[in-house]
Amino acid sequence: MAGLAQSGSNPDVELLYDINGLAKDAPHWFDRVMEYVGEYGLLFGMVLLVLWCWWTGRRRAGSAQEAASSVAALVWAPLAAGVAVLVNVPIRGFVERPRPFLEHEGLEVLVKGKTDFSFVSDHATITMAMAVGLFVANRKFGLVGIGLALLEGFCRVYMGVHYPTDVVGGFALGTAVALLLSPVAMALLTPVAEAMERSPRVGWLIRKRPSVENRDALIPGTRQDSTGKKSEERDLAA
Questions:
Q1: Secondary structure class of 164 (helix, strand, coil)
Q2: Out of 106, 132, 190, 224, which could bridge 72 as a Cys pair, Cβ 3.0 to 4.6 Å?
Q3: How far apart, in Å, are the Cα atoms of 213 and each of 24, 56, 64, 195, 222?
């Protein structure tokens, strides 16, 4: 398995040279941007996307059960990425595929010091697992996440540190873990989220609490008029 994709006539290798060749023709500053984005930026962007989805979701949540289910799905997104990376450990050890720059000359390698095996890409696995987990919770945010994951895969090949099939394998692994284990994860995480929602201390993490004015408006006899005074007090003054 270690000799996988060593032939120059392999379409995987040809696509590697085509995509990585863009780095040779690009300005130096652009390569540095791609290096940062591909190594750290998109991972950080995925985390921010999950937090953004949580922040907007808790503000718009309906019932307590719906809010707990939504937050449980969001929690599963990063957990799925972690599980997928753990699953990838034995896969890498079994395939033992060297990094492409160790097997092929003339590549523009933007990140130095990569000595571990190439298949499958951890970055592609993490971003796609988070994106698919996010899609389960919120389709709009999930589609954005999938777009970021695809960009991550392109960056890894552009940087010369992965074959295209490393990226495709990472996408497949991340998707499989996020979807196949989602029912089990939701069954475990949803009761925890429901218990948190009922807690006066951490319930705000699940659903935004109504303001004092809104809570007063739900109590009979304490509705406020346009001047901000309670109708009950106005009747007493009269």
A1: helix
A2: 190
A3: 61, 21, 20, 26, 10
Task: Return the structure tokens found at 4.
Answer: 């996988």
SS3 content of the chain, % helix, strand, coil (to 5): 70, 0, 30
Of 137, 123, 148, which Cα lies nearest the Cα of 178? 137
Q: Could you tell me the pLDDT band of residue 230, with boundaries at 50, 70 and 90?
A: very low
Distance of alpha carbon 26 from alpha carbon 23, whole angstroms: 5
Site of tokens 């201390």: 201
Task: Give the confidence band of 199 by pLDDT, cuts at 50, 70, 90.
Answer: confident
- Cα distance between residue 10 and residue 57, in whole Å: 46
Residue 217 has pLDDT above 70, yes or no: no
Token pair listed for 53:
């989805």
Integer Cα distance of 9 and 160 in angstroms:
18
Indicate the burial class of 224 (C-beta count within 10 angstroms; 0-12, 13-18, 19 or more).
middle
**Sign of the alpha-carbon torsion through 59, 65, 66, 68:** positive
pLDDT, tens digit, 9 for 90 and up, residues 139-154:
999 999 999 999 999 9
